[in-house]
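hi!! sorry for the late reply, been swamped w classes. u asked for the two structures so here they r. pasted raw, havent cleaned anything up. first the sequence of the first protein and right below it the tokens
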Amino acid sequence: MRYERIKSLFGDDFSKLQNAKILLLGVGGVGGHCLDCLSRSGVKNITIVDFDTYDETNQNRQIHSELHEGEIKVEALQKHYPHVEIINAKIDEQWVRDFDFDEYDLVLDAIDDIKAKLALAQKCYKKLISSFGSAKRLDPTKVQIGDIWKSYGDKFGSKIRYELRKRGFNKKYRVIFSSEEAIVKDKGSFVGVTATFGLVMCSEAIRKIKETKSV
């Protein structure tokens, strides 16, 4: 059976994975691998949101990108994961303000827009798992997950913490970050790190689902 080995790990809790409703924002280098992990683990109710198309520069890190150059990402990914719901939209601050997150058990943030990330934290921190910067790094063993206020080693994350404090936000939520200092200034990226971010995000989502009383 397809899910036999994951069922052996979860036992009766496996039904929680199949019933959980997940909203995944961004399906690039981090989000794409998170989507693959969730799907292989038996999560069926997944909605993915992105507006971008695949191009050649994505092929070093984004899953399935080499097969769909020029195609809209969410539409291309639905061919591989036909159970997902797709929303082709640009996730900015206004989109976050307008969107209804109530029906989802978890919101997974794999986007780069700082204002949108801040709006997400303020609106749905109780169900949020957020990814910080995965680019410019080479060491996947430095990838960690923890409380937003205990994260470190990432200028992108530092800016988010600073802006949240300015807005008077002091709630806790989980973030994925790397303690490795950026080793280049340009947009260098390594799939060993970006994929690790996505897999850690998936793992944390599954852990949180497993710990719920019922889904």
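now the second protein. again sequence first, tokens right under
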Amino acid sequence: MSHGVVVGIDGSAQSAAAAAWAAGEAERRGLGLHIVHVAGTEFDALERDLGGDTVVPQPIAEIRDRVAAALPGLAVSFEIWPGNPAETLAAVGGRAELLVLGSRGLGGFTGLLVGSVGLRTAARAGCPVVLVRAGEDGPGGPSSDVVVGVAGDRPCDAVLEFAFRHAADTGSALRVVESRTTSHGPYSTEAPVDQQQIRESLAAAEQLRLRDALSRWREKYPDVRTEAEVCAWSPARALVEASRSASLVVLGRRTPKHQVAAPRLGSVTQSVLHHAHSPVAVVPHD
């Protein structure tokens, strides 16, 4: 069975925020919402001979019922699964267009917002994964910018497609952010000429190259107001700073070419997931 948007919940405030975000996204896309709770080792204890039904923990039922009540026209389904949470959510998400999870804090480190389940799921899932946090320091609403991080001379099509589509669906502007530095520092040179002039010239050339790379996407999504930005900060810092005024940050994750390779997230993606001020989408690509 295929699902539209899948959201994993565990009864926490973070997963409640994820469920609300996922429901809004499903409604925008005209898709159903499938809510999943992975009980893990608790599954056997939840099973009761009550006409074949499984007892649903109260915090889980409250989130499920709240989403259904808020959007009565949305098709909502619900399942409880046994097993390892990250592996199970990644498997269920493999039949979905989008998988949404809540961010969980790691102990007392307030700057680290994503728990191990979220990281492992984002590294494994075959569909885009959005991690949503609960808190008051995020952006105000869908009218905020969508931010997408790109790297290299040929930005990834799957990542840009996701970012442009989300911006179009939500009526948001799109900021395309790329970090460019050299071994001697941002846009630097050892030649005995005007350093500032060279930095400005290189920055202008890089920005022109990025705009050219985006031209066909602008033609496909003409209503999306797009800003191309090449900066001298590190990629993680640039994207975390951009997330302060964003409704969503979009990143790519390269899938392993060989199945024996362990799925993993790059250092930039992990840093942004931990420190971003907005939801973050991780889009797998070849």
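hope this helps!! also noticed smth abt the second:
The chain has a mean pLDDT of 83.
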